[in-house]
Predict the 3D structure of the following.
Amino acid sequence: MPQLIVFDMEWNMGYAPRTFRYQGAEQTLRGEIIQIGAARVEAGRITDTFTVLIRPKIFPKLHHHVAKVTGLTQKDLAAGVPLAEGLRRFMDWCGPDAALGEWGQDDVPVLKQNLVLAGLDESWPRTWYDLQRAFLSQRPRAEGESMTLESVVERLGLEKDEAFHDALADAVYTARVCLTIDLDKALAEYPGEERQLEELLCPPDKKRSGFTLWRGYVDGEAWLTSEEMRRAACPVCGAPLAPDPEDWWLRKGNNSLCSMGSCPAHGPVMIWLRRMRSDGLHHTFARATEPADEALTARWQKEKKAALARAKRRAEREAAEAAAAAAERVKNAGR
């Protein structure tokens, strides 16, 4: 397996959202990196460490929440290096073929966005792992247990010799936590993006099939316009499904859509779409279908009716607000 670099980052944020363009699509910036810490793990031990402090440019003023959590000051940031230099140092230290590991799924998306901002190769790293998931594969979470890094360090009885929320300290703590399991085995069995999406979309308690994947979309709303994603086939006979009469799709949380199609021979079929944004820049979409029994059909019809009513009320409210604004402009113009 590739050499593992366990890393952690701290990043600054603004008091108002900022966006940037990537491959023609507008992306919301998650944060500007101000600190990177990393530990190289080889043969079951930490063999080297890395840290760099970065001077922010997009969000030059340290956000009060970031200052409180990290203990960093404006003076600390002023002594940092520019973003591109800090990222180059980190990439050089890691090496081109290293695999990165983080506690959770927040750091790699921010890293890749910042690589774009710095004009560097955002395809690096090509391999990365959520080490919390790897850890849980061998030490399942008990009911009520917190999975914050600090709480896991405490449960394992590991020495706490540095303050948390320092990038280097958190990287070292993460490495120590993961060295309490068979890390090579956990990473060898780690599910790729396709398997993760299939597990989410087609859980064992559902009769879903026809799993199909689409990768590499910079537009996170591509599923709203893609005929290929939205037009499915009957899971029984393979015939194209007639779409919902209004072509209506319900949102299920932030990352799922569903609709109901119909097969002339086999009746109603639910169509499920799921998306994943694992690298901060690109989205992967997946689809599955499920024959709809009476209970599922009734639930769909009830939820669709409620959603249509909400959409109608929202349209009426927006129209009334627009009319009131127009009337106010006419009134002011006549003064």
